[in-house]
Amino acid sequence: MNTTAISIAARLESALGADHVNGRSESCAKFGVDGVAPSLVARPASSAEVVEIVRFAKSEKLALIPCGRRTKLGIGMPPARYDIALDMTGLNQIAYYDPGDLTLSVDAGMSLTELADALAELKQFLPLAVPFFEECTVGGTIASNIGSSLRPGYGSARDFLLGAEFVNGAGTFTKSGGRVVKNVTGYDLHKLLIGSLGTLGAITRLNFRTFPLPEGYGHLVGAFSSVDSVVRFQAMVAKSPLSPSSFEILGPEAAQVVAGFQGGRDSALPSWFTHGAWHVCVEFEGVESVLRRYSAELVQYAEECGASKFYLLGKSDEKSLRVGLRELIKLLSSSGPAATIFRINTFPGFSADVAMLDALAARLSIPSCVFATSSGPLYFALQPDVLSDKTISSLAQIASGVFEYAAARNGSAFILFCPAALKHVINVWGPARNDAALMRCVKNAFDPENVFAPGRFVAGI
Amino acid sequence: MLAENTARKPLHRDVIRGLQNIVGASMVLHRPEDLLLYEYDGSVEKGRPGAVVFPTTTQEVSQVVRLAAQHDVPVIGRGAGTGLSGGALARTGGIMIAFARMNQILELDLENQRAVVQPGVVNYELTRAAEAGGLYFAPDPSSQKSCTIGGNVSENAGGPHTLAYGVTSNHVTALELVLPDGEICRVGSHHGDSVGYDLAGLFVGSEGTLALVTEITVKLLRKAESVKTLLAIFDRVDDASETVAEITARAITPAACEMLDGWTLRAVEDFIHAGFPLDSAAVLLIELEGLAEVVAAQVAAVEEVCGEHHAREVRVARDEQERELLWKGRKNAFGALGRIAPSNYVLDGVIPRSKIPQALRRIREIGERYNFKIGNIFHAGDGNLHPIVLFDPRDAGQYQRAIEASAEIIRYCVEIGGALTGEHGVGMEKSELMPLLFSDDDFELMRRIHDAFNPRSALNPGKIFPLNKGCGEITPRAQAAVRAVPL
User: B472 CB near a chain A CB, below 8 Å?
Assistant: First the structure.
């Protein structure tokens, strides 16, 4: 620690107590974002302490980044400034739970698995089947808005987040929404926190509606020889009365990653996997009669669409497939030194999208894969063998191509994960947006002095 | 008592002339007798605009807003004027932009289940247009045959079926906006996912205080394969409300779960002849939707819960005609009550669903104490109460007591973990109650958001934020503190 950092540490310690402040460089390194490490890690134990820290940072003109378990700090641009890591894992309790009302209020630093366990005791759950599930916190999941494979059935966080408490950049504790399932009292500020990447404030508590755990699950995996037949199958299911809880489309290479994960290191690949084929993994829920209906109809649709094979999974395969699908982004993001994943928000007019993305990657000889949730988004992952200047320049070229393509399709795209070096060449959020000025209005209202995560977000926010 | 700004100065003739130049002389109302209709909405409030204009394009809206800015006159958007919180009233006068002529469905993308509409499209008209593709627009306020989607967006409207499908904000993916300086911009995307903050999520439900909405992209849902509508009849209100709590606790999610108490249903029956039993204490109207197998299982489960809570009878609507009649009874209930008393005050508090029985008991007790008949007809499955206080507004004492009783009910909703409004919006009706829920710091942030987009309060002034900050009371004529802006 340099002398400034020492003096900051001393003053924060006097406010919070020594055990809540850590300035050791090895600890700070763990909280690094794209190679930028903070000078201090502060671990508040209450929202009042979060207020203290934010006020301190504001008055000292220091920059803060709120962190959970740091699994997704790679999302976004490198911070323009970064002095204090705000470790939110000290706030980790269920504050309120009314199972009869199916509503919940939970501290942002609570781990998703602990929460899931507590809810499961009362046969309920939160439909956040997200990558890094085993390690991450509730707050980080919301702040990153990372995709959930249960979205087709349950919607995204904005559909079941009821309210939030947070400390904004002015250093005041504020709340939005409430704990009831229907509420239009005041502005929906909590919706802005979803995906805000810590740039608007430190989320201290989140209110959700919870859902009953289904009576049972079923899974169908269909293998298709062409992307066109996948599209037909998808359209057929969309127009049917069925509403699956999850509908994941895996390109041949993405399917291999999931199958490899499921098979484990030594064992054979699972029987549902067909080398070189497109796979569609459908999850459905309900009582026995409902599961039977889904199985029968999905099989019929798959046959009609020319699936080369299809499997209704047994219990033993089911669990590992679910985990594999949920963790696919994590598996791909850690698959090599220069792994890069795009998230593309368009309606998958799939055949054309895939052809275009494949061509982009093939032109520069970089292995790639695509996968999608039924109604989007579409993911495009690149796995270069080495991290070199040439790799970075190829990735940058591909990125321009993807951004252009998404814009032409009336959609948008950004890079979810990539090597930090690429961020020095391109903006992961894509080209300038015409709503950037409105985004800045929001940022300025929440964080007028730019205390929170400066530079990481869209439009230089 | 209810009159507020009827003595406003008229708009300067330059403003009127400017408006006429933009939209044509016949599309500007400014004579007092023409404006009368526009000083009301569905609430008990009142506020007369200085002029009403009927633009047909976003460009015209933008020009009107620019003109208003030049003359420092506020602008208020208005759909069909069916709102229940005074959201579409010109609290401090100014120019009202009525979206009645911006009523085109611009795009029906059945493949991707999206529609792009102008704000003046009537809610139910969209569902009718989408029907051919087997789709519909889910938010279904009682006024859906007359209210507009622009109004639904501004107030974040709900309806009986939001229990399963969510309120308006769950169905909006993109907006075109006109900002207070006249600039036109777009937020969100056709798809729904976008890069950056969820601006569409912020603007939906902002009650016209941040921007005017000139185009809306919404999701369309696929019609369910099977629908069953049940009417459960109870001899005790407590049994009905405990049934609702139990249905929620057992995690059965109906598409809709509505409750009418005996007194209300008798008033409705007299008018609509929906087939509600006149001698019952309460009925639940429960709709189950989905796959035939799912619905069959849920009907059985609901019947079981009703039986355990002493339902006298559970009827299942035999056909679409019977189903429609039951819903007609529900959706026209407020109209029916208009036949009984000169005015009514409809509350919109929300409470945890586990607390419905105790809340209904408290409402009854408050009614007795204030000597009012308070009816209850509400979205029980969401915990969204609609106590209706009937009163005669010509009797000042009665009006005052109605307001006090209402405030007491809302305060109780908040005390047990609820909120002021589930779907009607804050508007000018509930702004003074906002401090029950929000601290000065909460207001400070909301105010900063407001000022970031609408710094001079040029759009829909006097809404959402309390004027007498900190009192936490409904002070009925706190509005009197609002002075007309000099025009």
Answer: no
